[in-house]
Amino acid sequence: MAALLVSPGVAPAYPNPGTVSGATWVHDPAMIRISGGDYAVFSTGAGLPMTTSTDRKTYSAAGAALPNGVSWASRYTGGSATALWAPDISYHNGKYLLYFAASSFGSNTSAIGLATSTSGRPGTFVDQGTVYTSSSGSDYNAIDPSLTVDAAGKWWLVFGSWWSGIKMIQIDPSTGKQLSSNTTRYSLAGASGGIEGATIFHHGDYYYLFTSRGLCCKGVNSTYWIAAGRSSSITGPYRDQAGTALTNGGGTKILATHGNFVGPGGESVYSDTDHDLLVYHYYDATANGAAKLGINYLNFSSDGWPYVS
């Protein structure tokens, strides 16, 4: 399949998500395989709900990663210990690392937290406290975390929503928290038109920064779309296919509204044994705008630009 390139004035023919069934009502999904081999999708919601599958197609509700939430979240959520957002899940050094956010709509008094588990199963995650925070006086928003390990084995956490855009800090692999010897907060992408839900994926010679652009959380009125830029260095600068810097409003469109699949975003990337996957939510116009799980193959063209199939 050829790369999906968008020409001015031409509406692209985006592929539909792969067929999934069962408990697929999710928002901001992140996928991994947990102990026993099941696929697990973590998502925004009370205690970070989990839905699991044996075949990546049929899903069953499995409970929550943190059913009682975390006590420190209340100061950021307006009183709830369980109203947690935008999980990121990965496996390193014998543990599942679950990053997540605590905040409230329209506020940047926010925090990123970390919980760990040896099995990845519901209810087994142990709170490790906050990783990074923002306040009303900050020019950034500490939500939507995503961990990446670069080609040299260094750990990085990308995050951010609106305000001044997407940020990144270096992480200490021994703690999962910010590396004390590098307290730099890197700026990777500006907030022109709305931006959040960032994740970085290393492929070939480049690091690819995927982001959600536009407005989420409005059902069939959502305007989310998924954009990408790339850089030979994880710290940037990231540029889109036209060469425009993401810090200057750039972003190559990867997936957008088509047919009944409205506002795709909240994406993550998972490398399965058979293929790289773009995992995201969309709003189903046939189900009153319910947020549902979308999965597509993530491919790269001969000149190194991502597209979905």
TrEMBL record:
One of its GO terms (molecular function) is arabinan endo-1,5-alpha-L-arabinosidase activity. Pathway: Glycan metabolism; L-arabinan degradation. The record marks 144 as: Important for catalytic activity, responsible for pKa modulation of the active site Glu and correct orientation of both the proton donor and substrate. One of its GO terms (biological process) is arabinan catabolic process. It is an enzyme of class 3 (hydrolase). InterPro entries: GH43_arabinanases (IPR050727), Glyco_hydro_43 (IPR006710), Glyco_hydro_43_endo_a_Ara-ase (IPR016840), Glyco_hydro_beta-prop_sf (IPR023296). The active site is at 28 (proton acceptor), 196 (proton donor). It comes from the Bacteria. Pfam families: Glyco_hydro_43. Substrate binds at residues 28, 106, 141-144, 161-163. Keywords: Glycosidase, Hydrolase. Its EC number is 3.2.1.99. Belongs to the glycosyl hydrolase 43 family. This is Arabinan endo-1,5-alpha-L-arabinosidase.
